[in-house]
Amino acid sequence: MGMDQRVAELREERRRKYFVRGIAFAIASGICYGMYTGTLTLAETQGVWGEWFAGTEWGAGNPPLSPFVITFVLAALAAGLNDIFSGIWSLAVCAKNRQLGDFWKTVKTKPGLIMIACAAIGGPIATICYIVALNSATAAGNPGVIVPIAALNCAIGAVLGRVFFKQELNAHKIVGILICLLAAAIIGGTSFAAMGPEAMLGCLFAFIAAFGWGFEGCVAGFGTILIDYRIGIAIRQVTAGVLELFIMFPLLAVIGGEATCIPELAGAAFSSPALWIFVVSGFFAMPAYSFWYKGNSMCGAALGMACNGMYAFWGPFFIWLIMGALNIGGMAADFPPLEPIQWIGALIMVVGIFCIAVDPANLFGKKKEA
Amino acid sequence: MAKELMPLYYAIMKHFMDGQEYAAQDVIDALKPDYGDYKLLTRKDVEEALDTAKENGLLDESGCDLDESEQLRIYYRVNEFGRDMIDRYIGKYSNPA
Known about the structure:
Oligomer: heterodimer
Shape of chain B: globular
Number of domains of chain A: 1
Structural class of chain A: mainly alpha
Helix content of chain A: over 70%
Mean pLDDT of chain A: 82
Helix content of chain B: 40-55%
Radius of gyration of chain A: 21 Å
Mean pLDDT of chain B: 90
Largest interface: A-B, 28 and 31 residues
Number of helices of chain A: 16
CATH topology of chain B: Arc Repressor Mutant, subunit A
Shape of chain A: globular
Largest sheet of chain B: 3 strands, antiparallel
Number of helices of chain B: 4
Number of strands of chain A: 0
Low-confidence stretches of chain A: 366-370
Radius of gyration of chain B: 13 Å
Strand content of chain A: under 5%
Distance between the termini of chain A: 25 Å
Number of strands of chain B: 3
Order of helices and strands of chain B: HEHHEEH
């Protein structure tokens, strides 16, 4: 065997390993996303959170919270707890790799500032909307329903990429986006009929979340080419957690005219045993986002987002698995398996995401040679 | 040291700004004096960083061969897009001479 042939073989092997590794990261991000969604939903049913959302007296005879506080202020608090814990986990990973010095230096540079700006949009705006959506859908009896709508961020990212960065948007991507919208309509349509206005509110906020994440995915993807993904995700989660917990949470409380409840709610949340479940949901949120960035940078944003977008499937699945099948939290009766039509809708959405990501001409036609 | 070093990732990318082709080991050897105590200055991590930069269009592959220990060695060179990105986003950062 000639030298050249050996080199070519090794080169091909490396290419294959890298490709498989990229796809593994992207798929793992979607699974972790589902686990984070499931654990977060669980956390919000436990301890004082359960009393808050039930709209009953809570703690030692405190009056029930107003609907505004339940919908928005608690969402900011939950998002803040989840993201701050996930930020701490991310910093722990950096510390393990002795990257804390680089973390701090990167924050002060231009790519670091772009990361912070993305986190401000993806965190306080998208994550809070996502939790508002999750909570109203939970109240309506089916939290899984909003996840596929939030998964539209992948389609929105493609459109925004076209608008802002003049990225190409060819026929197969447009077809994919239309399939996604159709799937969302199928899933959403079932829920409107079955569950009424709360689910509608949930779907609306899930859509805003999808918009925020679509924007983040397209801008952060651009900004993180020059940052190690572990440092990038630490910047994102710490920024998001701090903004949500220290700005959005009190701000929303003041807007709702309930400024006095800020210390009470924060105190109760931090002393509730449910805090530990947020530590776990934050633990899953870390790889959900860091593998999202990593997968996108390794196999290209389109394919990366396609694999990640399979959380349209993993989200409802893990909510049902954790809360329903495993009955953690003791409310299994409230979390029946999803309707068949919802599973079909989620699957159609995966097909749509796949169409966005992969040009059928490349898949079935001639292999592209670099 | 009077001035602090820039993040390792920036230093890896900026190493290509002289227009020459380098393999992962070349970059490691060049950065070793400054970044020797970094845990991620390994062949595996730097190779992945270069591969990813290639995937994102900053670097081009300029060739490959086998090194002394019969391991695959891939060479990279910065392209116009990469040069533009590096200049625009991290151009003003440098290490103390």
